[in-house]
Model the fold of this input.
Amino acid sequence: MVVFDLGNVLIPWDPRNLYARLLDRPAMERFLAEVCTPAWNLELDRGRPWTVAVAELVARHPGHAALIRAYDERWEEMLGEPVAGSVALLEELHAAGTPLYALTNWSAEKFRVARARFGFLGRFRDIVVSGEVGLVKPDPAIFRLLLDRHRIAAGDCVFIDDSADNVAAAAALGFHAIRFTDPASLRADLEPLGVR
Done:
C-alpha cells in the first residue's frame, strides 16, 4: 500500500504564487511571515472556518484587509500545475493494482476545489483530509485514523511526504517513510521496497 501526501508531492501549493502578483518580494515575505502565517494556515487545515479566520485576522490587521481576503477569495491561484512525474507514477501504481491512499493537511472547504480540478484524485481508495477530521500531520492521531479506518498496518504501507516532520512521525509509527524531493528520486526510493 502507498500513502501519498498531496501538497507539493502531487499538487504544488504556495501562497507566493498569488502574492507575487500583489506585492513586491520583501513585502510579500513580511506579509506571509507576520499576517497570513503558516500557523494561521495550519488552523484552516485543521478545520477552522474560513469566514471566522479571515474576519478575525482582518480585525487584527485592518490595513491588510484586502490582502487577507485575497487568501480566501483567490486561494485557487496558489495552486500550480500537477507534478507530472508524480502523477505518472501514481497512474502506474494504480494500473498495477497497488492500493493507494492519501493523507493531506488541507482545508475541507478548499479541498472541494482540488477534487473538482484534479481528476487523478479519484485514483485513491480514500483521502484523509485534515480539515474534515480535525487533525493535522504530524500528529500521530491522523496517521492512526487512516490505519484504523481501513484496518491496515503501518508496516504494510509506504508513506510519501515532502515534510521532514511528517516523514519522521510516520516512521515512528512503523511506516516505510520517504521524504519527497522530486519524482525521479521517489522512483529510486520506492524500488528497494518492491514498489514499481
Residues 15 and 78 are 5 Å apart (CA to CA).
